[in-house]
Amino acid sequence: MSKILFASSEVYPFAKTGGLADVAHSLPRALQNDYEIEVIMPLYCSIDKERYGILPLAQSFRITMGETQYPIEMYGCSYEGIDYRFVYSPLLCEREFLYGTATDDYEDNARRFGLFSYAIRALLKGNDYDIVHLNDWQCALVALLVHEDHDITTKTLYTIHNLAYQGLFEPTVLQELGISESYFTHEALEFYGKVNFMKGGIAYSNRITTVSPTYAKEILTPEEGCGLEGFLQCYRHKLMGILNGIDPEHFSPLLDGALISPYTNVKGKKPSKSDLLKQLGLKGVTKPLFVFIGRFVSQKGMDLLIETLPKMATMECTIAILGEGEEHYYRALKSLSEQYINIHFTLGYDEPFAHRLYGAADFLLMPSLFEPCGLNQMIAFAYGAIPIVHRVGGLVDSVKRFENYDSQSDEGYGVVFFTPTSRSLFLAIRKSMELYSDKKLFESLSNHNMQCDFSWNQSAKLYATLYDSLLMGETV
Ligand code: ADP
Fold first, then answer.
1. Which residue has its alpha carbon closest to ligand 1 atom 26?
2. What residue owns the CA closest to ligand 1's atom 27?
3. Is residue 19 a contact partner of residue 373, using CB atoms and an 8 Å limit?
4. Is 258 in the pocket of ligand 1 (CB under 6 A)?
5. Which CATH number is 266-451 given?
6. pLDDT by residue (tens digit) across 380-414?
7. Could you say which DSSP state residue 94 is in?
8. Are 466 and 240 in contact (CB under 8 A)?
9. Domain residue spans in the chain?
10. Whose CA is nearest to atom 9 of ligand 1?
11. What topology is assigned to 3-245+457-471 in CATH?
12. Are the folds of 3-245+457-471 and 266-451 the same?
């Protein structure tokens, strides 16, 4: 069996800030019957070693990066049939958060994730991995390090989960990273006077994927290319969009331990909804419940949402919001929740509570300005909540308009709006209210969506084809 090393800066359940962690947990699981797959991540101090049986491996070494030596200790565990490798080094791991606080990234993230990349290269040198699958800017430098090292024959696949986060640093980091100044060119790492880690992944990996077919096209345009559209155009021959999936066991209303009552159809959501409304002090079990779960950043359509909420609050509905992120957004949300009795707002990151929200919700709000793939809409389908989405990125590939509902199809349906304005969002919400009052259609749609397959079944096959073509040395 071919050997794959899957590298990610976060993996559920060990450490998660967003969808990357879900993907790094579920994609290797979907591929584990066909490949010998190991997952590697940092051993952040927040990870509960005892709970997951994470033990030191008899592997500790030093890495020289720039002019400094750093100690590395390797740890490991087996979880749900997957072997995990953890990289421990105080610089990388002894932090309260993964990447920084709500207001600032850690200043030394270049060195932290540079070190993680060097540790991955060290592992590749001593082992016979056929492919290393790298994710996002935090692992991007591995592609460059492997490209430079003629002893390593491992093929590299680089996945872009969100082009908006490229890993940009001052040019002085090159010296700290021990990377030659000769890489500070437009063709390599230089980007408007800064060092761009993601460019390393794009330029030096054998193949690139991103997380949906529509996003793969969008990132080649000036509107969505975040300044890298020209660079990506040069490498479009090795770029492919593959839609993410979700883990059907982790996101299952039948198996979900966070729910007070498991269910298999939309009628079965009632106890979850009543219980949640009671807990949040929201009144009106018969009114539609809209939820928003996510990072409070402009990408997620926070401005649209905040502008629309006062109008929404005058309607016969309840609204529950969970998330964390930029302070100005949560101040605005807090003030709205104090003003309107039908808006509830929770600040924080809480996995079980998020599951209970999906379990209780009639609608999920997802007014994202851009969305590489998005997992929330798929989770909403699985839990029988109808997503309300802006038609962009992975939402185009995963949510069809309910007006075109075909009960025989295997597509998920939701309320889709086309322009990112508060007016369009409001009209979509009004449409959702009408849909909710048509009980028969609402239930039929929700039940249909719950049966759709948003697991990795299809997409893992595409990754397998890609891995196989890399293994056969096919060039593009
Ligand atoms: P992102 O752009 O943040 O990666 P995705 O839609 O790809 O967005 O994935 C988000 C994942 O994180 C989903 O599993 C969602 O339920 C979860 N999530 C987001 N915010 C929170 C939160 N505050 N508490 C719990 N889970 C959250």
1. 351
2. 294
3. yes
4. no
5. 3.40.50.2000
6. 999 999 999 999 999 999 999 999 999 999 999 99
7. -
8. yes
9. 3-245+457-471, 266-451
10. 19
11. Rossmann fold (3.40.50)
12. yes
